[in-house]
Amino acid sequence: MVEFFYKATTLSGQTVEGLMEGKDESTVVQSLHQMGYIPIRIGSAEKGETGFSLASFLPQRVGVKDLLVFTQELSTLVSAGLPIDRSLSILGTLTENQKLGETVKDVLKRIEGGNSLAEALSNHPRIFPKLYVNMVKAGEAGGFLETILARLAQYLESSKEIRETLISVMIYPLILTFVSGLSIAILVTFVIPRFAKIFSDMGQAIPLPTQIILWISHGVRSYWWGGLGAAVLVYYGWKLYTRDEERKFGWDRFKLKWILVGDLIKKIEVARFSRTLGTLLQSGVPILPALNLVKEVSLNSVISRSIGNLHDRLREGKGISKSLVETDVFPPLAVHMIGVGEETGRLDEMLLKVAETYEENVRNSLKRFISLLEPLIILIMGGAVGFIVISMMLAIFSINEIPF
Predict the structure, then answer these.
(1) CA atoms of 294 and 283, how far apart (whole Å)
(2) For 358-377, what is each residue's pLDDT tens digit?
(3) Does 173 fall in a domain?
(4) 38-44 and 15-22: which strand pairing?
(5) I want to staple 269 with a disulfide (CB 3.0 to 4.6 A). Which of 218, 233, 303, 391 is the partner?
(6) How many domains does the chain have?
(7) What's the pLDDT tens digit per position in 235-251?
């Protein structure tokens, strides 16, 4: 038996919390239901409640994980029959993220003032994007808000998983690059200058590779501030350059042509497009307004413009699969699957299947990409360290040739 910590509420809205033993979380949920409680949050008692944390003193932001937990808990309460105002009142108190808690309380205040949930959420666009608000609006209009909230939670969960997969596979290459770069920096900044003094005192001509390393070392130590300033200027200059829509479009189009990376970007965007559009259609949002929302979700302006063209073709009466072919961006497999969904009248379901297919494809592609990237990093960094060591050894050998 494992001990679990739980937070729950009664039908009257009273919040309760405590510890309970059970085989797993589902057993605890069943026990709470038998006691007449509505489970809100269940976790291992070993983790305990959040105590002192440096993060609590830093400016908080509402991330995907915070929004996901809020949506899941709101879905649970609404599905259990609690009114939306009572549910928000409970979550405004329980939410661990202070900024999100204040936002929920403001949403509740607006609802009590006569606004709908979607109208209240729309006042906080940085936390609740248009996609979220429009799905809630469709749920309120159709009378199936609890279903929409469950789909939103599933959508956010999928987005979080893809992001976490990307982060997890990049951790080792980043650590490898950092450690290797730090080693090279220590050699260039502290070790090589000691050799430079020895070589200058000897007054002996040194090999060209050693001279190159000494020049680099001197430049790094004397003009590091210039390099840092140049990097900052390049960064902000590039941001300013790509602020223009056409320039950004050209850059995004160029990225799609990169070996390995371009194909990976396409797969990520196809998965995002399919997941978002499928979720919106399944939630009752008409396809043309849904495409406008999907267009805003895309991070690549080439894909975004293709979705805009798709919207225009559908408005002219063309089919979605034929229009996707004309965009010349979406892979044939995705277009074929979407075409089958369009023909069978199950477009929303097929879009979600396309999303699942390409999300799995992205995971596999990321693993292959990292498997190629890791040895490349080792080769480059090892080559740099090797060049430094060989250059120093050549200089040492040349010293040994000095006649005494």
Answers:
(1) 14
(2) 989 988 888 888 888 888 88
(3) yes
(4) unpaired
(5) 303
(6) 2
(7) 999 889 888 888 999 99
